[in-house]
Amino acid sequence: MKPKIVIFTGSGISQESGIPTFRDNDGMWENHKIEEVATPEGWKKNKEKVIAFYNERWEKLKLAKPNLAHEVCVELEKDYDVTIVTQNVDDLHERAGSTKVIHLHGNLFTLRSTKSKKVVIPWTEPLAKDLKAPNGDSLRPNVVWFGEPLDKEDIILAMNEIWKADAMIVVGTSLNVEPAASMPEEIPDNSPLIYIDPSDTDFNLPEWKKDVYLKIKEKASTGMVKAKEWLDEMFFPEDK
Length: 240
Description:
The chain contains 7 helices and 11 strands.
């Protein structure tokens, strides 16, 4: 049986693909205030502005390509049972070839009804103000905005994977947004936790967990290469 690895990713893993993070510019996202384009209040106040913003994001994401960090996630599937739990709304993990991906914050390549999270359709053309779902509901980007709760089913799926993990990699996240930020702490006691981040941000772990914790102070791509090397040495020492 392959060792089970959960890779918990944030916007930093896609930064090297040219996708800016939410927190690069002190509350600004591509020169827009987050509360104006990524909150339910922003949607109610100025739907046209939100639609124009997400149409632009959708067009840019279509041109983005997976980077080395995404590719290492796929490569790990050769020897490990890998599940990606991502806070990202892009589809770069899927385009790279990852086969099991849980999106906690939605997916910008789908649209959903403004009335029901269960009515979801592919996003195949620019979103218009009056675009409707097959059932007649108005549509919006299928993403979780600031101030909205995560989908309970997605949380359950993610936690069931984390609780069974033989090891976990956390990459590209500043661990500021709850409840996602606390989820990596739920891995089994003796399962290693690898945190990849170029900043001084760190986990506040209990003393007993520090023996199975590794901080890699690198950007996502080079950090994922080192994380894979470390896991291979631990799980497959006979091959070294």
